[in-house]
Structure formats: structure tokens, C-alpha cells
Amino acid sequence: MSGTSSPGTATAPDMLELAALLCSRVCHDLISPVGAIVNGLEVLDDDPKPEDRDFALELIRKSAKTASARLQFCRLAFGAAGSSGAQIDLGDAQNMARGHIEDGKCTITWNLPRLLLPKNRVKLLLNMLVIAQHTIPRGGTLTVDPIGEGETMSFRVTSTGHNARLPQNIAELLSGERGPAADAHAIQPYYTRLLAQACGLTVTLAPEGEAIIVTAS
Q: Which end of the chain is more exposed for a tag (fewer CB within 10 A), N or C?
């Protein structure tokens, strides 16, 4: 999986570096809610007033729920999630996506049928949603539509929201015009491109009016 460099591109990470960067990405997603749980427990250890105890318990409950949702999503989006050749229910993918992404600012409109799809196609969809979420930093709506049908179905994710924008370098990382930097943020769109290639697809990210469109076709 290692690559050669050319003008304007970086060398692709080898398998070991790819695994390490994906692990860093998962840790990045989990550190905030896990840290909040620790903070809540520290408040409880200080024998707090009743109102502070209630606040700490609510913080722990909310953060534990967030951490669980992110773990489940990351297991499906980045992990093995079943044996080679396994299929995944799009209904389960929808539940994971909502638990991870819907946070009071961002909502999902899911227009996909409930059916089993090859594992890599579902992983591709979830990673497309992560990219789409980054285009609406102030919140908005992600609309997921099918392209085609059956096991060869691909996807279109439309991001709409205030100040929707193209994140720097993401389109180039998806297209292969730019190699990934050695950080957890850049590795996710690079991994999305690898998933698309494994499915025989290409992922594009482009503006369309006031919306941003992520397409796998």
C-alpha cells in the first residue's frame, strides 16, 4: 500500500502507518467524552453538594452515551465489523450514523431502503457521512440518497447548512491529487478513497449551489 511521490503529492502511508493513523483517529473521537466521564467522577470523589453531584452524574450519563455511540460507529466505519465478504444491514448503519452524528446541531435525512449490502460499501457510506459533516461546521442537514439499487447501490450525501464549505484539501485527498499528511484528520478521507477503490467506485466532493455534495459512483 506504499506509494511513490510526485510533484504536489505525498508518499502514501504503508500498512503499518495507515493502521496507526486510523487508531489515532478513533482515539481523537473518543478522548473528549471519556475525559468528561473522568471529570465527572472526580467531582463525585470530592463529596460534592447535592446540586454538584446531580450535575456530575448527568455529565457522566451523557458522556458515556456519547462514547458508546462513537465506539459503535467507529467499529463499523473503521473496524473489521464481520468476516471478509460479510454483509451489513443498512438499518443498523442508519442507527450508528444517527447516534454518532446527530447532536442537536446536525440531523440526517435517510432515504435509503433497508437491505443488506457488502461490508465495504456500508463502511464507505459511513465515511462519506463523516466527510459531509465536516462541510457544515455550524450544523445543518445531511441527506443520504441511493444511486442505483441492490448490491451495487452507491450513494450521494448532500450537506446543507449555514456557511457550508469545502474543507481544505479534502477533495484532493479523495481524488488522489494529494497524498495524506501524517495526521489523523487527513487519514480519514484517504481511507474513504481506499474503500471506494475496493468497491470499484470513485468519491467526489463538490459544491452544488449552496449545498456540498459527496458522491460515490
A: N
